[in-house]
Amino acid sequence: MRPPVLPVPRARRHTLHFLHHARTAAPVHLDAEADATALLAHRAAAARPVSVVTHVVHAVGRVLARHPDANATYAGGPRPRLVRYPWVDVKLTLDRVVDDTRVVLSSVLTDADRASRSFLQARITRLATTDPEDLPEFDGVRALRRLPHPAGRLAFAAASRTTRRHRHLGTVAVTSLGHRRVLRFFSHGGTAVTVGVGRITDRPVVRDGAVAIAPVLPLSLTFDHRVLDGAEAADVLDDLVETLGRAPTPEPTDAAR
């Protein structure tokens, strides 16, 4: 008996187009762990707590603004060029169901270097809970779904040109598998830097020379070696770990806690 041969679901066509586009990168992978004690304490005390992913997106926005060489993209061409962005747009991946098919969708959270945690949480909640077919953010995905595969690939390439790339791919990407027992994973999100978020678990840590149990947040960072080198990428990851390890700065909405 031969196994059935089925076409790739239309709902996943945009992923194939993205993978074709992303294969030109030169990805290198790093990982680290952040002490999540202060982050979780802030969540527990907040009147309107935000998710761990929202805290990461908020921190990534601030960190990339401090590392402009990493907030860039490779433009290619006969004379290779780099485009450095004066803002930080975070591409966030989401696990959704479209046409009875589980797919990964992404949306760009603009100006994440200036947005508050509460504002980011409202946007992320809307993206995660509203039917994707009703969200204008996914108009492009629906358009790609309707096109024949070769035409869709061309359309994706046109939308990903340097002048428009940040609108569709962001200037940095954040992806999470922390809903399952995944500690770390490495993914290239089509940007110079992609941050992966694992599941927080209680782990032994050393504090003041003694072993203690603390919640630890695993983080991965994949960087495009065409845009930056390992030392700069390590600085970005270390800055992110330090930022997430500190108590979150108060926001106006924190006053009620």
From TrEMBL:
Domain 2-oxoacid dehydrogenase acyltransferase catalytic, first and last residues per copy: 168-244
InterPro entries documented for this protein: 2-oxoacid_DH_actylTfrase, CAT-like_dom_sf
Protein name (database record): 2-oxo acid dehydrogenase subunit E2
Native source species: Streptomyces stephensoniae
